[in-house]
């Protein structure tokens, strides 16, 4: 029983009338640990002795009013949830001071025991929720706290990590042009729109822009505009005040304010609604905004870096994206080529990703791609770009029994070079350049043969058995499609 009592939420009950404290204690005793205090002085001493989750105070006391006491407690113990009890005659005083004291609930006399118990229960749950959110926020801020504590050393590490020469690519990579462009843009306070398919590294280039600019010592804040509804996006970006809408139990700082002096990266900006585009344009033009539910204007100084996998110029022509907002976010534009246009980067990217994945997975070594595996990777079109490559390499590492990563560890669709049966079910076309049915079937057959042989490490007996062919039949097909010579070379 002692352990069970110790884990119960603690409620501080403050009233100059001992009988009132005893009455409230009887209502709460079964679920809460009640800490009695007869007046403000005892309440302050009690708060210093142990953690208190909920404070219940009577408004009319000789030393000080309940509102004055709770206002004082808010300054020193803001995490405690505060409840005031009063008679109807004191309602005007309560309402006038409710914001200063941060009152969670106002209970009038005479109160009903069930209503009082329910109110305190909800207050304790609110305290637990706020505590959990605070712990999560602390974990998310660890890198920022570390940066503040270690100062220049951390700043230099971030700048080193996002140097332009740290962007992985081959010596003759098409990515060189994009890197050269971003290096020219970084020192200047211009808005940059980064375009490219999903998974091409838009987030990486946005960070490189920030950490190579004069804003590098200020925050880099990210919001994925396509991940949350536009109704919530306004609160995320601008913040809100307590009571702005149902569930807004406390003031919240928006990302424009958090990023002040730094960079705000708006990913998937093409997903925002036309109505929200107007609100976003207003703050980008003036640097001023209002929190949801507030009339007070706030100012922010941020650099905007936006990204999208859509063709925003086409969206503007179609009337789905405002032209004035487009020109505001695209003072400079940067396009990242897809991975299929950079086959020469695959070796460098694979080595880099395998080393990082091996550390994350606890593997003794990064693993080495066989020549056949690398050839398969180069033959594949990578619709998911670097993100998909990362997933494929992770699969290979997880399934591998040794350091050599052979093609049998690759997913079937990568082994087939992306060829899928669905690719051959297209409607007929009048274009004479389109392959005939026979040619399509032969292409599919060749892809399946290649995949099967690679998966069985070119053991033709096993491949023939799986495909329902004789060894002679398999060899004939390999010769027909030129695979025998390719695999034996």
Could you outline the blueprint of secondary structure elements for this entry?
Blueprint: H1 2-6, E1 10-14, H2 18-28, E2 33-37, H3 40-49, E3 54-58, H4 66-76, E4 81-86, H5 91-101, E5 103-108, H6 113-140, H7 142-150, H8 152-161, H9 175-185, E6 192-195, H10 202-211, E7 220-224, H11 230-238, E8 239-240, E9 252-253, H12 255-258, E10 263-267, H13 274-286, E11 288-290, E12 297-299, E13 303-308, H14 312-317, H15 323-329, E14 332-335, H16 346-361, E15 368-369, H17 371-379, H18 385-399, E16 404-405, H19 412-415, H20 437-455, H21 460-467, H22 471-481, H23 483-488
Here the CATH topology of the largest domain equals Rossmann fold
Number of strands: 16
DSSP strand content: 5-15%
Class of the largest domain, according to the CATH hierarchy?
Alpha Beta
> What's the alpha carbon Rg, rounded to whole Å?
32 Å
Describe the structure.
This is Sigma-54-dependent Fis family transcriptional regulator. Keywords: ATP-binding, DNA-binding, Nucleotide-binding, Phosphoprotein, Transcription, Transcription regulation. GO terms for molecular function: ATP binding; sequence-specific DNA binding. It comes from Acidihalobacter aeolianus. 50% of the residues lie in helices and 13% in strands. It is an alpha/beta fold. The protein folds into three domains: 2-138, Response regulator (Rossmann fold); 153-335, P-loop containing nucleotide triphosphate hydrolases (Rossmann fold); 341-488, Helicase, Ruva Protein, domain 3, CATH 1.10.8. It has a five-stranded parallel beta sheet with strand order 2-1-3-4-5, sandwiched between helices. The chain has a five-stranded parallel beta sheet with strand order 7-10-13-6-14. Strands 8-9 form a two-stranded antiparallel ribbon.
